[in-house]
Design goal:
Elements: E1 3-8, H1 13-25, E2 29-32, H2 43-57, E3 60-65, H3 69-75, E4 83-85, H4 89-99, E5 103-107, H5 113-125, H6 132-138
Parallel strand pairs: 1-2, 1-3, 3-5, 4-5
Helix pairs in contact: 1-5, 2-3, 4-5
Length: 146
């Protein structure tokens, strides 16, 4: 059973709970990094907590905020994270195939529940192709100046 990390801010709480139900039905072992309240909160702390766990386990995660933009910005500050804000199933499939994304970002205020579920399933069900794509991923983190 694969462990999957999930976190949100106040805007993503309702969608997170819906996704958790679907993920549990699929048999995932879920680790919820918060928030657990609809009170206004700061999204970076939840993104950083999830990303630290994903990096430590070489795992995968899902981040949710109002648009998905803030979470993706915070997540991509981590060298071992390749977070992708996906608004379609095609985005989710291609970011897994070509970018080996390990964190899916969703916007609860801009993506309906059924579409979010479809995007999540596409993300989780698609494998990385490797090959020429690995060479490009290896170039994502800046190299020290010589």
């Amino acid at each position: 059973m694969e462990t999957l990390h999930i976190a949100c801010d106040h805007a993503g709480l309702e969608l997170k709970e819906t996704l958790k139900t679907a993920l549990a039905a699929r048999g995932f072992n879920l680790v919820d990094h918060g928030t657990r309240s609809a009170e206004s909160c700061d999204y970076p702390q939840y993104a950083h907590a999830l990303c630290a766990a994903v990096e430590a386990e070489n795992g995968r995660g899902i981040l949710i905020c109002g648009t998905g933009i803030g979470m993706s910005m915070a997540a991509n500050r981590h060298a071992g994270i390749r977070a992708a804000l996906c608004t379609t199933e095609l985005h989710a499939r291609l970011t897994r195939r070509h970018n080996n994304a390990n964190v899916l970002c969703l916007g609860a205020r801009v993506t309906g529940v059924e579409l979010a579920l479809a995007i999540m399933n596409a993300f989780l069900d698609t494998d990385f192709e490797g090959g020429r794509h690995q060479r490009r991923i290896d170039q994502l983190n800046p190299q020290p100046a010589r």
